[in-house]
Amino acid sequence: MNTRPILDSSSGPFALSASFNADSSCFSVALETGFCVFSSRTGDLKCAREVGGGIGSAEMLGTTRYIALVGGGKQPKFPQNKVQIWNDATQVVSTSLEFKTPIQRVRLSQSHLIVVLLNNVGIYKMKSPPDKVADYETVNNPFGLCSLGRNVVAFPGRTPGQVKLFDLTTGNVSIIPAHDSPLRALALNQRGDMVATASEQGTLIRLWSFPSCTKVAEFRRGVDPAVVFSLAFSPSGSMLAVTSDKSTLHIFELPSPVTALKSDPDPKTHKWGILSKVPLLPRQFSDIYSSAATKFQLGDEPVGWGPQSTSATLNAGIPGVPGGRPTKGLVGWLNDYTILVVGAGQDARWETFIVGVDDQGKKVVVREGWKKYLE
After folding, report:
1. Which residues of the chain have pLDDT under 70?
2. What 3-state DSSP class applies to 131?
3. Residue 245 to residues 104, 200, 329, 330, 343, Cα–Cα distance (Å)
4. Computed from CA positions of residues 310, 315, 317, 321, in that sequence, does the dihedral angle turn out positive or negative?
5. Which interval of the chain is the signal sequence (predicted)?
6. Distance of CA 296 to the CA centre of its chain
7. Cβ 30 vs Cβ 58: under 8 Å
8. Which DSSP string do the residues of 277-335 spell out, in sequence order?
């Protein structure tokens, strides 16, 4: 018998979505009443704003006073087809952009604003009002997949599994046929010369170079399909963190920019040992697995509002919220050994993990602390 409560934001705080700023030093949380900003290092509240209605997503511009807001939840403060640039110094909307269809996600930097619709990505220069640079059709993108780097932005292309990269400096466009099935997650590294991708199958993580668009590495998260929630490069680009609905955080060691991973696995360190060298066995016996993994907390959620939705092409759920479901397993790095995992929902959680080496010289990842950040 299921005794979990139904979704009811009146019973207490309910985080609709969560998002890190560019350097993951803070994370913003959208609520049914407004939004909050928290310190990533401690999980402590930095500011809270009630705006008189629901916010579906809130995206911070660095640590400055500007936050991009999209209405959402049961009683949205703003229409879902408008981006509101909130000036927190004056606590008013300084400018806004209106679209014909609901906004799935917003990304912003000091120089650019990216607006993701279900079948379109708009690229703007950060001005008042924003100045449109380019506009691209995409395959259905209900999760608002988009990664904004210093000089490049990555988002789904016009066919399932395809990644499009737009060079913000030159205006050049590159296309990577990354997967056969629709994308579920993608991320750029800080330098903007690597992009990581996962499809809705969730078994393989692929690493691509930019601007050459060649595949540098391929990693196996697992054998069973899974919903990959988030991908995030460490600041130095030496590791990739991956979370999924298996409630597992994986750490993959990445090749240097000038080398690729060895095609021949080392039986001494490989998950399957000597079996990795047997040529007639299925490929999962020789694939590269994570060098360290641990569990993170998904949090208890009402039936139907958890992470069960796997499709990257269907859109349903909470209005104004990327993917229509509360954010889960969002990954960020404070530095090259400290990982953050943040989740929204009725049971909203913040966790920190430390990457290190054990007595045998093997890489490990252990949880350092956690809290329910809305309590």
Report:
1. 1-13, 256-287, 303-316
2. strand
3. 21, 12, 8, 11, 12
4. positive
5. none
6. 16
7. yes
8. G-TTS-GGGTSBPPSEEEE-------TTSSS----SS---SSTTSGGGS---SEEEEEE
What is the structure's pLDDT at 341?
98
* Contact by Cβ (8 Å): 240, 252: yes
**Do residues 59 and 19 touch, judged by C-beta distance below 8 A?**
yes
Q: Which of the 8 DSSP states describes residue 76?
A: B
Parallel, antiparallel, or unpaired for β 349-357 and 338-343? antiparallel
d(CA 250, CA 268): 20
- Distance, C-alpha 326 to centroid of its chain: 12
- What tokens does 164 get? 């499009």
| Entry field: residues in the chain | 375
Closest residue by Cα to residue 107 from 164, 138, 147: 147
Q: Is 118 exposed, middle or buried (0-12, 13-18, 19+ CB in 10 A)?
A: middle
Cβ neighbours for 185, distance < 8 A, ≥ 6 positions apart: 145, 196, 197, 198, 228, 229, 230, 231
Could you identify the residue written with the tokens 């391929």?
A: 218
- Distance, CA of 184 to CA of 237 (rounded, Å): 21
Token duo for residue 169: 């400096």
pTM: 0.88
Provide the residue type at 192 as one letter. Answer: G
- Amino acid in the structure at residue 204: L
- DSSP per-residue codes, 338-367: EEEEEE-BTT-EEEEEEEEE-TTS-EEEEE
Q: Give pLDDT, residue 146.
A: 98
Q: Return d(Cα 238, Cα 224) in angstroms, integer.
A: 26
Question: CB within 8 A of 268, min separation 6: which ones?
Answer: none
Are 171 and 207 in contact by the 8 Å Cβ rule? The answer is: no
The encoded tokens of residue 186 equal 């993608």
**pLDDT of the residue at 263:** 47
Q: How many CB atoms lie within 10 A of CB 164?
A: 18
Domains in the chain (CATH in brackets) are 12-371 (2.130.10.10)
| Burial of 334 from C-beta contacts in 10 A (0-12 / 13-18 / 19+) | middle
Residue pair 105/112 in contact (Cβ under 8 Å)? The answer is no
What is the separation, in whole angstroms, between the first and last Cα of the chain? 28
